[in-house]
Design a protein that fits this description.
The protein is an alpha+beta fold and 208 residues long. 18% of the residues lie in helices and 38% in strands.
Amino acid sequence: LEGLTYGEDPSGGVVRDRQFIHPRFDFAFTAPPLLKLENTTEALLGLDMNGTTAMRFDVIQSDQSPMASLEKGWIESVKIEQIEETLINGLSSATGLGTNSEWSFRFAAIRKGSDLYRFIFATKTLTPELDRQFLESIKSFRSLRAEEREALRPLRLTMALASESDTIEKLIAQMRGVDRPLDRFLIVNGLDRPKIKSGMNYKLITAD
């Protein structure tokens, strides 16, 4: 198992802690801290523990400006209002707000080349602090530096022999590139409780 690839193929974009990094499309951004991220073939999805706050991030090919795209609307029965044009790290962008009977939304569109990147944040109650986190995430969208593209490698499984002085905290501190490292450690090692034994080998998730 030593060196076995774990998780996503970097060419399809990878989640590393709160960051989503896509080397092929040359961008990265940081998600709000309350969201657990899942990378699917169609979109990057995020959901909080209570199911009351969510995110969808995707990309489409479009010749529309970010503002025109928002004005057209993205969700049936949700009119996007308070649309503002802006520049995000040098990229033409627009943000807006919307509501329906159950949800409040923060929208953003960012033009990069021929692609339009779309953020949709949805929450049951849009507080000023929550909206600040949404906007902070949107504004973190940027192109990758050359060294970042070169350094991005798949996550791999490595083996660690537990000594008498080791604790589970010491072992998971060696893990890289994953959210909820304790949960991941338990899953890859087939454990149902956070307890280790001296002299046993344990799998760790690390980055090359």
